[in-house]
From TrEMBL:
<dbReference type="InterPro" id="IPR003607">
    <property type="entry name" value="HD/PDEase_dom"/>
</dbReference>
<dbReference type="Pfam" id="PF01966">
    <property type="entry name" value="HD"/>
</dbReference>
<dbReference type="InterPro" id="IPR045509">
    <property type="entry name" value="HD_assoc_2"/>
</dbReference>
<feature type="domain" description="HD">
    <location>
        <begin position="61"/>
        <end position="186"/>
    </location>
</feature>
<dbReference type="Pfam" id="PF19276">
    <property type="entry name" value="HD_assoc_2"/>
</dbReference>
<dbReference type="InterPro" id="IPR050135">
    <property type="entry name" value="dGTPase-like"/>
</dbReference>
<protein>
    <submittedName>
        <fullName>HD domain-containing protein</fullName>
    </submittedName>
</protein>
<dbReference type="InterPro" id="IPR006674">
    <property type="entry name" value="HD_domain"/>
</dbReference>
Amino acid sequence: MSFQDEQLAKEKVFRDPIHGQIIVDNQILLDLINTPEFQRLRRIKQLGTSSLTFHGAEHSRFGHCLGVYEITRRMCNRFQRNYPTRKPGDGLWDDRERPVALCAALLHDLGHGPYSHTFEHIFHTDHEAITREIITSSSTNVNQILSRVSPTFPEEVASVIDHTYHNPQVVQMISSQVDADRMDYLQRDSYYTGTNYGKFDLDRVLLMMRPIKSGIAFDISGMHAVEDYIISRLQMYLQIYFHPVSRSMEVILDHLLKRAKYIYQHLSEFEPEFTPYMLMPFFNNRFTLDDYLALDDGVLTTYFNHWTHSRDEILNDLARRFLNRRPLKSALYDEKSKPLLPKLRKLIQTAGFNSDYYTAVNDSFKLPYDTYNPQNSNPQTQIELIQPNGNLIELSQVSTLVASVSGKEAGDQRFFFPKEMLNEHQDIEIFEPIYEEFQSYIQNNHIINPKEHKQ
């Protein structure tokens, strides 16, 4: 049975705060949404620890995946209406690609775990590889539904997500510098964080998109809408995704899971009842796909609640700091002040905090726009504009605004430490000189050398 044979007699509509209506008109897509693997995404926050900074950011990867699907559906509709293929190889849109594009858009984040990026760092998982496994493993509901289209269809969908699919138009719909994934999460994350940074003219950007042989390009008359998108993305990273409090809570989460793993592997005789069964396969570095799919944010939060009663003081304290939102403080550093960090760690250790678990460095940088460089390990497809004569020109060649940020990383480097180190009055007077010395290294949220800043 083909994809077209499973058209719904009446379309299904999901009400959405970003796109208004998300329309599903095919049984394959509806069945994919109703699988346990996809429904699990309701229980995984899109922005992880950012909800501890922006309280409205409680939205899930489920809503985001529906949004990426809807944007891709609109792309397909516009391409088929305005740029349908006339003959093989003409670089226009072949609507036979619609099924694989829509399914890849819907399923692209299927492999994300709880607090995904922190979880990946601790347990060395790869959400893209797991997404591919969910799609291609014959044991999953998702795979069985995709296989109704054809025996090779699951592999085709997976190849879009890992960028090996033969049609670059479909790949760039899902993954490029202006793709359905980014366009949805910028609008969605901006809405739920209560900010305006990520808002841009989505309708105009979609209107200016055109299929070409090498992928997707934009009519040059839409250049300013694309500029607006790029600057919106830069602002979202600097103001939302790189927010120091969110990063601080990620550090606590990272160290909490690291401590739990250490206790399980080294201190079982100290705390023999420490048996977090659903995490043990990951502590043992031997987990199955079923083990992975059993996890969500709620599972981890339940364990964190248990760990607030642990006899291990570090695990107990970190769990309480995370659950009760007690972030670490941070200060900016650069290459000049970086050599001071060991001294600061030593002061923190002397004040009674284990520096392995109560300090961290975090570097967060992002390229607002990356021109194509084949020498890069992961070269980006550049944004091409179509001129009136049909020739292509790369965006930064004609946009002074984009040229000004192109290839330049934006972000900062931070050193995280316990907030207690900045308190003016401590109960334990013996530590007072340590706090005072530590504070002499912090000025205007930057790490400085006090010897160089004496009046």
